[in-house]
Every structure is written in C-alpha cells, then in structure tokens.
Amino acid sequence: AAEPWPENAALYQQLKEEQILLSDNASSLAVQAFLQMCNLPIRVICRANAEYMSPSGKVPFIHVGNQVVSELGPIVQFVKAKGHSLSDGLDEVQKAEMKAYMELVNNMLLTAELYLQWCDDVTVEEITHPRYGSPYPWPLNRILSYQKQWEVKRKMKAIGWAGKTLEQVLEDVDQCCHALSQRLGTQPYFFNKQPTELDALVFGHLFTILTTQLLTDELSEKVKNYSNLTAFCRRIEQQYFEGHENSSTGAARSSKRSLLR
C-alpha cells in the first residue's frame, strides 16, 4: 500500500529569476513533472546555496520527512519504495526501452545544455558567469564560476565532447529530438495513454529549452522543428501545471513566450 505523502514535502533548487541555469532548471522541472504525474504535492523552495545543500552536489533535491534525495533517478526509486510508480504498467521490454530513451536524453540533451552553458565562450561570459555567481560577492562569484566551469570541462573531456563545435552539439540535439519524435508519434505520451518518468524527463528538458532566453534561438529551433514534441510539452503543461500553485512553468513562460500561443 502507498505510504502517506507528507504535506510539508519540499523540492529545493537555486534562485529562479536570477541564478538557476538551463540544465538545473530542466532537471528540477523534470522532477516536479514526475511528482505531479504521481499526484504527490511538493513545495518548491529556492535557495542560493541549493547546490551545496544537496547530498550529491546536484539539484534538485527533495526533503520528505527525514529523507533527503537528489536527482530524478534516485527520486523515482524513493517514490516507488513509498508505493507510487508511473511505470508499473509497462512490461520488461517496455521498461528497458524507457530506460534507453532516458539515457539518450541525459547523454544528449543534458550534456548539450552543460556544453552550451560552460563551453560556449560567449554564453559563458554573457549568461553563465553572471547568473551562476549572482548570489555571491566579488571575487567569490568568479571563483565559484571558474571552479564549476573547470569541473564541467573536465567532464566534457572525459566523454569526448571537449573538441566538439557548437554546430556539432546542435546536430546531436537534433538527432535526439528526431529519435524522441519518432518514438512519440501521434500518441499523447511515449508509452500509450499514461505518462511515465520518461515523459517527465523529456518535458523538463524540452520545455526549459523552449522557454529559456539564450543569446540565440538555435537550441530552441531544433525542438520546434518537431511539432509533436512541442504539442507534447503544451499538453503536459496544461494538464499538470496550469492552475497549480507554486508552478515553475509560469515563470518560465513569462520569461520568454508562452507555448500556448
């Protein structure tokens, strides 16, 4: 039987308006979408030091009872242990397929977001450094930004992305979107009529890409080429976020443009 979900359950992320970056915003929105789909209420709390409060050093993390759990994968497992699951109706083959597509999203979209934020020189100077360091005084703001940039660049080198051009990264995003678009087809969700954690993950990343103001629209244009993916984002926004208090998608939409136009 499902355990009762505490009313004071909270999700922590960085400051929404001035600090949070594209990749963290996408990851946070994916977790919020997953919890909404499970019908588990959560309060979003923004803290400048959320990254340093997290047990894994990554956001978002949830605080439920006396448990603190970070990132979508472990949160899905934690929620499942409490008796709530979105993918119980899938057979083993479908579960394996779902995991493969989630890996694709994390390996392509999340990595592309990190690359754009920390490896594209103009974006780094114009957006990433000012936002990432915004809560802190000089010179700490620059020190923390450079530290994070060094971390991400080391990761990019390890996975073979350090030598890529922005055009190659955008091509990877396009290939990922193409694969997702083909899998979705004309269905409302990736696996028939009910959402799974894959739907939450894809929504978090695509919605954030579509609604985040960057220096150019090249990234969002890759997603917009696939009308079924943008319709998918609208559908989840309407069903799970509109009219909900403390919704993160409202602020995202007002910062750029509504998906509903």
From TrEMBL:
Family in the record: Belongs to the metaxin family.
- Keywords assigned by UniProt, alphabetized: Acetylation, Membrane, Mitochondrion, Mitochondrion outer membrane, Protein transport, Transport
Annotated gene: Mtx2
> GO CC: one term?
SAM complex
Recorded protein name is Metaxin-2
PANTHER family per the record? METAXIN RELATED (PTHR12289), METAXIN-2 (PTHR12289:SF38)
Gene3D superfamilies per record: 1.20.1050.10
Domain annotation Metaxin glutathione S-transferase: ranges: 174-236
Sum up the protein's function in the record's words: Involved in transport of proteins into the mitochondrion.
- State the organism of origin: Sitta europaea (Eurasian nuthatch)
Gene Ontology terms describing biological process: mitochondrion organization; protein transport
UniProt cross-references to InterPro entries, sorted A to Z: Glutathione-S-Trfase_C_sf, Glutathione_S-Trfase, Metaxin_GST, Mito_Protein_Transport_Metaxin, Sam37/metaxin_N
Q: What do we know about how this protein assembles, alone or with others?
A: Interacts with MTX1/metaxin-1. Associates with the mitochondrial contact site and cristae organizing system (MICOS) complex, composed of at least MICOS10/MIC10, CHCHD3/MIC19, CHCHD6/MIC25, APOOL/MIC27, IMMT/MIC60, APOO/MIC23/MIC26 and QIL1/MIC13. This complex was also known under the names MINOS or MitOS complex. The MICOS complex associates with mitochondrial outer membrane proteins SAMM50, MTX1 and MTX2 (together described as components of the mitochondrial outer membrane sorting assembly machinery (SAM) complex) and DNAJC11, mitochondrial inner membrane protein TMEM11 and with HSPA9.
Annotated compartments? Mitochondrion outer membrane
| Domain (Mitochondrial outer membrane transport complex Sam37/metaxin N-terminal): residue spans on this chain | 28-148
